[in-house]
Amino acid sequence: MNLPNKLTVLRIILVPFMVAAMLIEFPFHYLVAGLIFGAASLTDYFDGKIARERNLITNFGKFADPIADKILVISALVCFLAKGLCDPIIILIVLFREFVVTSVRLSAASQGKVVAANMWGKVKTVSQIIAIVTVFAFSVALEILSLFEKIVVLPIFGTLAYVFYIIGEVILWISVVFAVISGVKYVLDNKDAISEM
Fold first, then answer.
1. How far is CA 47 from CA 1, 10, 23, 118, 182, in A?
2. What structural domains does the chain harbor?
3. What's the pTM value of the predicted model, to 2 decimals?
């Protein structure tokens, strides 16, 4: 297994640690989960960069890289839902898009074709990563502020939490728009594989 593929596998391995850090309450657990998510996201950048620069692009990488992205992003969104940081409709739309795209990808694979992610898929992934990192950053900020709330009452804490939630939701919804656009583009670009299903 070459280095880019190892980085893809590492991204998947990091997911359970991120989920545990998100769901288990301990001081600065959002920070730990966010750092793990950030490290996993960097593997996405480096596996593609190394594969292209060193001509190490493989069928495994074309197939596994987007799957690893889906596992990472959907795991983070489900954790956000569990913590009340994400609208469930966002997750439903993202899941629907991913099921459709994965179905097309599997159909193409059954016909001996490996379909790599297109530019819109990359835009979708980057927008999702930016949105998730933003929600993590807001959660860490609120976690730090809550320490001071125990010492001095901060009347703006509730308002700030609400503002952060709204901004996070808006950014997540923007990433959903890119997810839908990329999903539609993916289906249109691969309608031959669908017609042979």
1. 12, 10, 28, 16, 21
2. 3-195 (1.20.120.1760)
3. 0.88
